[in-house]
Amino acid sequence: METLEPILAAHPFLKGLEPDHLKLITGCASNVVFQPGQFIFREGEEANQFYIVREGKVVIETYSPVKGPIPIHTRQKGEVLGWSWLVPPYRWHFDARALELTRAIALDGKCLRQKCEDDHDFGYEIMKRFAFVIAERLEATRLQLLDVYGDRS
Questions:
Q1: In this structure, what CATH number is given to the domain that contains residue 52?
Q2: What pLDDT was estimated at residue 152?
Q3: pLDDT score for 149
Q4: Domain membership flag for residue 83
Q5: What does the DSSP assignment read for 85-135?
Q6: How far is C-alpha 26 from the chain's CA centre?
Q7: Pairing status of strand 102-108 against strand 49-55
Q8: Is the pLDDT of residue 100 over 80?
Q9: Residue 107 belongs to what domain range?
Q10: Is residue 81 part of a domain?
Q11: Are the CB atoms for 85 and 44 separated by under 8 Å?
């Protein structure tokens, strides 16, 4: 039976990971498919996964009672979706919705948190990689806020 290990090993987010660490991640991985318009996660819900998008496009958005959904960022083939699984209280901070048929690899956050706890070298490596994802998401949110609430003169 073929595993997801070669696909994960080739992904830029995981490239260069030690073989033992790659095996830890593969043990927590599964294929998933989302239909156009399907929510992948909703703000406030329990966050127990992150995703590597293999095909398709996903919008990360927040909801305003006045403006409705406000797009923050899109994720597409080759990109990572979701970091809330890593930071207590493990709740999603935004919504994510498939814009088109999307195939991804889901990584079980509970599984990975335990493996990070058991192997601190592995945990440190995962945190370094996700620090970049979190910083990128914060920058996208800042730019969106400037667009939404910026000077209108």
A1: 2.60.120.10
A2: 53
A3: 67
A4: yes
A5: GGSTT-B-SSEEEESS-EEEEEEEHHHHHHHHHH-HHHHHHHHHHHHHHHH
A6: 16
A7: antiparallel
A8: yes
A9: 5-148
A10: yes
A11: no
Question: pLDDT category, 138, cuts 50, 70, 90?
Answer: confident
The number of folded domains in the chain is: 1
Distance (Å, whole) CA 15 – CA 42 = 29
Q: Coil, strand or helix: which one is 9? A: helix
pTM listed for this prediction: 0.85
> 103: closest CA among 67, 51, 153, 46?
51
Q: Return the SS3 of 142.
A: helix
Q: Which of 77, 8, 75 is nearest to 40 (CA)?
A: 75
Residue 133 lies in a domain: yes
**Residue 148: what pLDDT?**
64
Q: Which amino acid, residue 52?
A: I
